Amino acid sequence: MKEEQRDLYSLIINQLVYDGFLNEAIKISESTMIPCPLKNEATNKLLSIYQSATSTPGGRSNFTSMDLDEDAGSQVGSGGTSNISNSGKNLIDDIINSKDSLDLDDLNQQNSSESSNKVQPTVSFLTKFITTHKNACRCAKFSWDGKYVATGSSDTSIKLLDVNKMRNYNQTKNETTEDSAPSRPVIRTFYDHTQPINDLDFHPSAPILSSASKDGTIRFYDYKSSLKRSFKYIQDSHSIRTINFHPCGDMILAGTDHNMIRLYNVNTFQSFTARKVNEHHHAAINQVRFSLDGGIFASCSKDNTIKIWDANNFQLINTFNAPHSNKEPTTVQISRNQKYLLSCGRDSMVKLWEITSGRLIYSINTGVNQSGGQNKNRISATFNYTEDFIITNDEQPSVCVVYNSRTREQVQKLSGHNNTVRYIAASPVENALMTCSLDHRGRFWTEDTLTLQQQSSSLPTTTITTKEE
């Protein structure tokens, strides 16, 4: 559904509630997935617009024709996903084009020349804000525009935080106190699940946050309203382990304790799965992630495989068998240019793959699981927004490490948590991170520009010189 259509239906729903037609408003809200306001929050803006329009000379309306095409989302089972809305597409294009994406072909060309002077990218993160749950902080997600980040916990709560307020926050409070700071970076806390939160995702264009839980539901929240509960939900018979919106916003992938990946239409809640039974995973799904343009998606499972799928027809493209030495892969991420797949697994390795050929490009041994016995928690790895760096777990469970994605050199260790780091989320628009830990805390990290300036002024320029063998 286009943004103009959402605005129109929102006006209609508000007007119906304002005029007392609550049942009719709820029906439209459920059909369009647009939140229905409370009676005391509804507005009669639609009537005001109409009165203003009809008060022009001659009584003619100033309404311009609005493109109200039928829902562009043809069912996946019939051969296609939805078109991306203009606002969503512009945002996605901005993310794709904001920086050069990871391309190791360029690096190989440089290394094949007699010499190459290349100043390596550098980064330094510092903690700017700490949010505290009542139990383990299990997952986090940044919004597509980078303005918000949400954290989910074993205590069943979800916190929504304002990134700009956290960035400008002076972390002078004691870490054991609550988040009741004057600047109020925590702008909303949602309570609607009955069991721990497993995953979160933001709608690409609408103010909607989605959550997945062990209670078998996917819930949808309007984070611009004052409501603390979801306005709509999907009920499944299995624990929902992972979710991811398609860039069009009309579809959402879901991986559960069941071996079949679901693709839901978020307007009708109609569910789709791959037709060929032999193409499915054979165990619970650990993670599903779309590419930025929505053309393909990746999945990883407890059956120790990674699969690449065509999102347009839900057909399998490739299967990576035992990519992590017969240990389950825990996270997957497709690079912006769709050339590479970043994965990590319980073998303690972070690996970069070429998607088309399935070739392993390199691996990084994090050391996780090699000290202190078996680690029962998922290992997490993610690119930063420029894909110049990979952030993942360290052999010290409470520490994260930043690696150069081209040279695999360690850039920085991120210390501060008091227990195992379970999840790492990166902003799509800037060098900002949210790390989630079993110490109940989510730590917001942003770029330490002062340190970088001091380093650049005191250190000589770093160059890499390579010779042709």
Fold and architecture overview:
This protein is of the alpha+beta class and about 475 residues long. It folds into 2 domains: about 1-60, Mitochondrial Import Receptor Subunit Tom20, Chain A (Up-down Bundle), CATH 1.20.960; about 125-455, YVTN repeat-like/Quinoprotein amine dehydrogenase (Methylamine Dehydrogenase, Chain H). Helices cover about 15% and strands about 35% of the residues. It has a 4-stranded antiparallel sheet with strand order 1-28-27-26, with no helix packed on it. The protein has a 4-stranded antiparallel sheet with strand order 2-3-4-5. Helix 1 (about 5-20) runs antiparallel to helix 2 (about 20-30). The radius of gyration is 23 Å and the shape is globular. The chain starts with a helix and ends in an 11-residue tail after the last helix. The model is unreliable at about 55-85, about 110-115, about 175 and about 460-469 (pLDDT under 50).
Question: How does the SSE layout of this entry go?
Answer:
Layout: H1 3-18, H2 22-32, H3 45-54, H4 86-98, H5 104-112, E1 125-132, E2 137-142, E3 148-153, E4 157-162, H6 163-167, E5 186-191, E6 197-202, E7 208-213, E8 217-222, E9 232-235, E10 240-245, E11 251-256, E12 262-265, E13 271-272, E14 285-290, E15 296-301, E16 305-310, E17 315-321, E18 329-334, E19 340-345, E20 349-354, E21 360-365, E22 381-383, E23 389-393, E24 400-404, E25 410-414, E26 421-426, E27 432-437, E28 441-447, H7 449-458
Antiparallel strand pairs: 1-28, 2-3, 3-4, 4-5, 6-7, 7-8, 8-9, 10-11, 11-12, 12-13, 14-15, 15-16, 16-17, 18-19, 19-20, 20-21, 22-23, 23-24, 24-25, 26-27, 27-28
Helix pairs in contact: 1-2
